[in-house]
């Protein structure tokens, strides 16, 4: 799944994880991947369990009940170089990837992203990327 300029926000300064999740969700809405209700479900999921994955990555996504609000599979990315606290102590999220997976697509997307970010070098390249093309090139170069 590729990111486009309309699904990426770079160099953001964000105060709260709720704001970060809402931004990632709004990108999914604007790109036609989900209806607005899905964003609320992303915030609801975060209340149940943190979507922080380590290596400066958070992957907010909706609850199972929210799958009806997914129009088609897609991802969004919000880059926060200074980080935003996701309730995980001293390691803030610097990359927030919103996911909307139609059917079982979300499992494959989650797996691909988790593998990519298992290497801190990959995470740092994405944290320092200056456009969507750079991020796509990094993700495409990851051995899965």
From TrEMBL:
It comes from the Bacteria. It holds the Pfam family PTS_EIIA_2. The lineage of its organism: Bacteria, Bacillati, Bacillota, Bacilli, Lactobacillales. Keywords: Kinase, Phosphoprotein, Phosphotransferase system, Sugar transport, Transferase, Transport. The keyword Kinase applies. Transmembrane segments: none annotated. Coiled coil: none annotated. Gene3D superfamilies: Mannitol-specific EII, Chain A. The keyword 4Fe-4S does not apply. PROSITE patterns: PTS_EIIA_TYPE_2, PTS_EIIA_TYPE_2_HIS. One of its GO terms (biological process) is phosphoenolpyruvate-dependent sugar phosphotransferase system. InterPro entries: PTrfase/Anion_transptr, PTS_EIIA_type-2_dom, Sugar_PTS. Residues 1-142 form the PTS EIIA type-2 domain. CDD domains: PTS_IIA_fru. One of its GO terms (cellular component) is plasma membrane. It comes from Globicatella sulfidifaciens. This is Mannitol-specific phosphotransferase enzyme IIA component. The phosphoenolpyruvate-dependent sugar phosphotransferase system (sugar PTS), a major carbohydrate active transport system, catalyzes the phosphorylation of incoming sugar substrates concomitantly with their translocation across the cell membrane. The enzyme II CmtAB PTS system is involved in D-mannitol transport. GO terms for molecular function: kinase activity; protein-phosphocysteine-sugar phosphotransferase activity.
């Amino acid at each position: 799944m590729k990111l486009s300029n309309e699904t990426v926000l770079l160099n953001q300064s964000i105060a709260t994880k709720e704001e970060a999740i809402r931004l990632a969700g709004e990108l999914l809405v604007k790109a036609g991947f989900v209806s607005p209700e899905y964003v609320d479900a992303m915030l609801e999921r975060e209340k149940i369990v943190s979507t922080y994955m380590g290596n400066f990555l958070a992957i907010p996504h909706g609850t199972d009940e929210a799958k009806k609000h997914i129009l088609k599979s897609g991802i969004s990315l919000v880059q926060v170089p200074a980080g935003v606290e996701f309730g995980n102590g001293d390691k803030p999220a610097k990359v927030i990837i919103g996911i909307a997976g139609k059917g079982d697509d979300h499992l494959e997307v989650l797996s691909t992203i988790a593998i990519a970010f298992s290497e801190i070098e990959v995470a740092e390249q994405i944290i320092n990327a200056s456009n969507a093309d750079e991020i796509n090139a990094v993700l495409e170069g990851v051995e899965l």
